[in-house]
Amino acid sequence: MCAKRLSWSIAVASAGMVAGVAVADPLAQAQHELEQGHYSRAASAFGELLRQGQGNQESRLQALIGRCQARYQQHLAAPTQSHLAQQAFSDCKQAIELQADYPLAYRLRGMVQLALQQPRPALADLNVAVALDPKDFLALQHRGMARTRLNQVEGAMEDFNAAIRLNPDFPGSYYYRGQLHSLQNRHDAAVADFNTFFQLVQRDGTAYSQAERNRLLSGRDLSVADDFNRVLQQQQQQQQQPPLSSTSARSGKTPAPQEAKKARPSPAPREEVTDPLAEVILDASLDADLPPARSGAAHRKGSYAFKIESFRESANADKALARVSEQKMPVYVEPVEINHVTHLRVWVGPFVSQKEAEAARRRLHAVGFTPEEVKSF
Fold it and tell me: What domains, with CATH codes, occur in the chain?
């Protein structure tokens, strides 16, 4: 199963499946229940595996992630049962404690916190998820959602654009970018995105679980629904339109306006964005009043920051970003070209005062970092 089809999916263990049928492996059976949308049974099956304490660390990690996803989907189907989301949060937290650099666990925990209407901590987790896996379009999409709720408009638009560039066939990114366009009174762009969303959902009925599909198609979670409702009404009119009669077709007569087949709406324009890896910028300070920093222009005038390391390998820079973000500190990357080789400098900041920066520097030094001196900009 490809990643674009199910926002809640994890890979099914191929060794435990034969021609799509679950076999003896209990973990594969639990994952199969999840794939089939049997969330209650899946949560129970993963829970039983965890209670038995069988398997290695990897198996326990997959069981925690699987139960987190199952409980998250149960919460989407029954939003008033917040305890399901709290339980999903606990599962993801345990997964992170088991493996601190597992990007899916951070992405899922961020999604759960968005469902719990907690965008600030959600943003922190999604920052780490993107740092660990810059090509995870779902992490980018959900970070855009968190930034939208925190009124970080520029950063949210960058995330949605990057998610669409990575996977232009996934409906959700158009849906939430359309919402952001609508909030900014860019109504033509919003309608174009919502049209594309409807086209993609109709093309692939498995893009979402039934609970997610119903929620999205109803527009219940939209802060501004006018543009969405306009497109929704157009879609409903098209679905109710009767086909042309064979008599009209043979006669060559132009059908009456109410019989004419409406043209399919054009897909939303795809906005060009830079490589997502170059945009691995964390804002773990969660200060909604500060605009998101960008690579190459991150040093903010009048602020303070300090460098912790420079890397030539992006994977190593990503790990450093994730470790600093776990300490709930703002962190960003500065790409610098030296002798035609790009070096990724990891900076902690910006801070509004030298005192704050020095305190953060001491904290990181205490947990094993070797930070350089604080600099002012």
Answer: 1-133 (1.25.40.10), 148-242+272-278 (1.25.40), 280-376 (3.30.70.1070)
